[in-house]
Amino acid sequence: MEAEVARRRRAREAAEYYCSQDVPRRLEEALNALFPLRPADLYGDLANCFSKFSKAPVICKLVGRKVLDGVGRPTLEVEIYCIIKNYEKRVCSTVISSDSQILENALSEATEADEKERNDSVNTAVEWVNESLNTLLRDLKPTEQCEVDKILGEYFTKKVEEEKEIQKEKEEEEEEDAPPPPSCVPPTTALSGGKKASALHLAGKMVSGAERTISPAEPMESVLRGSSAIGATSLAAAKAGATISHIPLYLYIALLKHDQDLPKELTVPLPMVSLLNCGKFSPGKLKLMKEIMLIPPVHLSLKESIERILDIQKEVVKLLEAAGKGPSPQLADKKKSGARGTGKKVLPSAIKRISHLGCLIMGFDNLEQPLLLMQAACSNIGLELGADMYLAINCAAHELIDYVSIFNPSSIRDSFLQDRQQWDKVCYALGSQCYLLAEDAATRISRLVTDRDMNLPKCSGAVLKYVNQTKVSDLLELTGLLHGQRHITILGSPDGESSDDSLVDLAVGLGAKFIKLGGLCRGERVTKYNRLLAIEEELAKNSTLR
């Protein structure tokens, strides 16, 4: 008897609870809606009907771990777990690309120091994710990107201040331990301003006069150890938000950019495909031309563009192999002046390996050679360089000023950081002929967003890289500023790339005009081109491809 009473009481309490949650009415509506359809999976459709009434997923756990990037160096992976319908589920993960440059031909001491610093930085980032950030972001909705990034930004600012205090204490201790300065300081010897004169033979022209002292490349900006935890977590939150919203990441980014008002059409950025990596293996100032890239014309689809670039790449390989066997009239050094003799030179053989950028490595004897090589390769397969395919050069721009007269490509990347007067002269000489894109000056996205008064050099646009403490909100804000100033936005991959293809979705969602992913080799590079192809196909299928 008592058991029956208890049963009835529980049934009454359950009925009251379900009525308070409006379950009977919603169940009746769902059953009435599904009855005419007589679905094959009735309970599956009922589950779908009720899932929209469930609580929004919230972050319950972050997991950070050390993984390897495309060249075998340590980098950071962040996983996000959410509570979804009362279950803990792994939603997504992201691997952030490493920012530091690949050290080639470096001393063993420098390489060891770089490896130690990288390991320490990744270990610190893993610690930040698994401890502090895991606590700070718990119970937040991953769809609240602004709130997530605000917390991440505040945490990073706190860490920066802590590091400043540590450095200040170290400096004070060093000053106390330092010996007193000498009473007499000898005068410094004045340094000469460089060579008195130079004569440069460029593209058949003699350029004489005083050679300017070349400004050294600006040293790499110091990066706070562990900062990659901020960028990786922000991007992981965006991917989790897209997954939970059941839309691709590029659409999710486009919604964030346009305040949840999805544009009717989206564009696929033009790829800047690396074909030759030549600076490391060329003598002297010839190292200024670090990378030769191809840009397809806008009327081609991405699929057609890649096929055309692959055809050019095959022809380049043929020409390089032929050049190693003997003189080639198509690649002979075309000199009209006899100042350096009339003997013909041919291109040196290609080094039999692929660079970390996914392109061919070669050296050359003069600046014209790689340009003539590209021209000959295009001509041999019936293409006109400048009409059927465009050229881009990644150059060490702090050395470019002496060689301005030889260039006439579609775009030049990199920029002066210290000597803006030199950069202004290059812009004056070439600005009407090609795009001039700032890369190093614009890499520090969060610095550009924070310091609104720090102007970019005169340029057509900026190459942005998602690294370190960069947050998704920073990208959204900065691309808005660049578009407002009529600057071109280019999303670029860093040296230490990973197999994560999120960069492509970011570029499409942000409306970038170009994307620089490296060459058409190496898995971590090709996977991004494949993602770009998939997005183009999806947009075309949905009739939303501009």
UniProtKB/TrEMBL annotation:
Residues 163-193, 325-344 are annotated as: Disordered. InterPro entries: Enolase (IPR000941), Enolase-like_C_sf (IPR036849), Enolase-like_N (IPR029017), Enolase_C (IPR020810), Enolase_N (IPR020811). The keyword DNA damage does not apply. GO terms for biological process: glycolytic process. GO terms for molecular function: magnesium ion binding; phosphopyruvate hydratase activity. PANTHER family: ENOLASE (PTHR11902), ENOLASE 4 (PTHR11902:SF30). Belongs to the enolase family. This is phosphopyruvate hydratase. It comes from Nothocercus nigrocapillus.
